[in-house]
């Protein structure tokens, strides 16, 4: 069965038994044999305009109820950013769905860059400065890989068959005046085609206190409280320490995922009472904001007190190391929504803060400025509850509306968990325990360029895989409810 939405075809693959999964570094999928997992990925690529695609197994991830196999598309031996295919398998090896995106660019392209890596790194740092990100100095560390860029995939849209050879430059954040990001630089004419800072607005623990001064290093070089040490005399340090621990415990107990090693490089770092400014302006002191730098957390005064905000920002680190959703347009909106969803799950689980019925599904209800989003009723914050519904943002501001269009994913999570009647669909909620497992599997089955149609499909195929073996008590009735939610939110 195929379904077209936004110019993309989402294919559901009939369940078959996977004989095995091929190893990393193979050549084209069709040349590697007829293992059903490989055949499913190959078939998906053909349906989306990429016959004989060079798909290589990037990783296989164990998830509740089975596993997901991620394939990366290559052209001329170089990866196509965002061109990925994911095959979902249950615990018995049956395939329950295939999703993703591929480029339809011809295989005859050649990967012969005219510009050097050093030149690309200089351009990347200049682009970050021009974009209004914090100043990036010449000594900031940078890592560069050669890859292909398909502009359509970065918006969650269909490929138009045009690719650009780019230097994919990752600038590592260090000091405030050297915060980094990711820049794709045309490998032939040297112009930046995509720029993204590593910041997102909004257990081995290390907590620093900036004392409402402008910080000089975002990596918490001089912690005032570390793992196992005595409580600080500064309450916000202790609150941040406790919230980091609570979020870490949530991910470990629910999904067996160690935040310290997976996203923290061996430690979870945070700076509280921080003030911040960059080339684009001064964000105030005290600062009314919080963000994830790519390696650590930074909180303005009072912002570490909101457990869901802490979990939201740390979840950006989890997303970065799982689906790695591009932070623009629909993939970026799903990125923000997933951070909200897991942030709220942790908030509802930990027994701290305001968990009254009136605060349920509010994000940031414990902030000094009050709640910043309503996941149950996104319209209260001028966000859409359904795809391209009221308040949907179609422009390019805010990276293509990532903080606005996240309302669609948030509404879906509320309905899947608690149920309700919406857009002609009456849904029986699965409850939080099942919803957590469904969303964890779904996050691990998304690709970096997933759009809302693919999120809807992945929620359904994830549920199907869970119900196949009765994992976490999932049944086919649960999956009917998930399908109703996808219909109601028009994904």
From TrEMBL:
Keywords: Hydrolase, Metal-binding, Metalloprotease, Protease, Secreted, Signal, Zinc. Residues 54-100 form the FTP domain. Residues 375-404 are annotated as: Disordered. The active site is at residues 313, 403. GO terms for cellular component: extracellular region. Pfam families: FTP (PF07504), Peptidase_M4 (PF01447), Peptidase_M4_C (PF02868). GO terms for biological process: proteolysis. It comes from the Bacteria. Residues 380-404 have a biased composition (Polar residues). Its cofactor is Zn(2+). Residues 1-31 form the signal peptide. Residues 323-466 form the Peptidase M4 C-terminal domain. The keyword Protease applies. It is an enzyme of class 3 (hydrolase). Residues 203-320 form the Peptidase M4 domain. Its EC number is 3.4.24.-. GO terms for molecular function: metal ion binding; metalloendopeptidase activity. Belongs to the peptidase M4 family. PANTHER family: BACILLOLYSIN (PTHR33794:SF1). This is Neutral metalloproteinase. The lineage of its organism: Bacteria, Bacillati, Actinomycetota, Actinomycetes, Propionibacteriales.
């Amino acid at each position: 069965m195929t379904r077209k939405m936004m110019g993309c075809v989402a294919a559901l693959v009939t369940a078959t038994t996977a004989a095995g999964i091929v190893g990393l570094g193979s050549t084209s999928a069709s040349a590697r044999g007829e293992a059903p997992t490989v055949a499913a990925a190959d078939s998906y690529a053909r349906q989306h305009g990429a016959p004989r695609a060079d798909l290589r197994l990037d990783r296989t991830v164990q998830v509740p109820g089975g596993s997901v196999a991620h394939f990366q598309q290559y052209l001329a031996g170089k990866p196509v950013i965002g061109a990925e295919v994911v095959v979902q398998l249950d615990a018995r090896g049956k395939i329950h769905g295939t999703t993703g995106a591929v480029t339809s660019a011809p295989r005859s392209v050649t990967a012969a860059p005219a510009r050097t890596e050093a030149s690309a790194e200089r351009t990347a740092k200049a682009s970050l400065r021009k974009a209004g990100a914090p100043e990036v100095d010449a000594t900031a560390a940078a890592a560069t890989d050669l890859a292909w860029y398909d502009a359509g995939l970065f918006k969650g849209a269909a490929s138009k068959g045009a690719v650009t050879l780019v230097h994919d430059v990752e600038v590592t954040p260090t000091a405030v005046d050297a915060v980094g990001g990711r820049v794709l630089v045309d490998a032939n004419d040297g112009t930046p085609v995509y720029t993204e800072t590593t910041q997102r607005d909004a257990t081995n623990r290390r907590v620093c206190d900036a004392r409402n001064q402008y910080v000089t290093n975002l990596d918490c070089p001089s912690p005032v409280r570390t793992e196992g040490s005595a409580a600080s005399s500064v309450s916000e340090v202790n609150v941040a320490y406790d919230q980091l621990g609570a979020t870490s415990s949530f991910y470990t107990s629910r999904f067996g995922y160690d935040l310290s090693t997976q996203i923290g490089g061996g430690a979870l770092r945070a700076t509280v009472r921080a003030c911040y400014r960059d080339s684009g302006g001064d964000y105030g002191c005290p600062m009314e904001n919080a963000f994830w730098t790519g390696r650590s957390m930074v909180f303005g005064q009072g912002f570490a007190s909101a457990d869901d905000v802490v979990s939201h920002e740390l979840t950006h680190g989890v997303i970065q190391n799982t689906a790695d959703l591009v932070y623009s347009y629909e993939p970026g909106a799903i990125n923000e929504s997933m951070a909200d969803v897991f942030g709220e799950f942790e908030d509802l689980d930990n027994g701290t803060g305001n968990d009254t019925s009136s605060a349920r599904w509010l994000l940031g209800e414990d902030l000094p400025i009050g709640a910043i989003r309503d996941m149950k009723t996104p319209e209260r914050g001028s966000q859409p509850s359904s795809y391209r519904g009221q308040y949907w943002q179609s422009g390019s501001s805010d990276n293509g509306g990532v903080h606005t269009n996240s309302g669609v994913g948030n509404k879906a999570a509320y309905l899947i968990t608690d149920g309700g009647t919406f857009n002609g669909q009456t849904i029986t909620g699965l409850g939080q325990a099942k919803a957590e497992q469904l969303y964890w599997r779904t996050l691990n089955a998304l690709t970096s360029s997933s759009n809302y149609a693919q999120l809807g499909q992945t929620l359904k195929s994830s549920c199907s895989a869970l119900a196949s073996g009765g994992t976490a008590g999932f049944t086919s009735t649960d999956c009917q409810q998930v399908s109703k939610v996808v219909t109601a939110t028009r994904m």
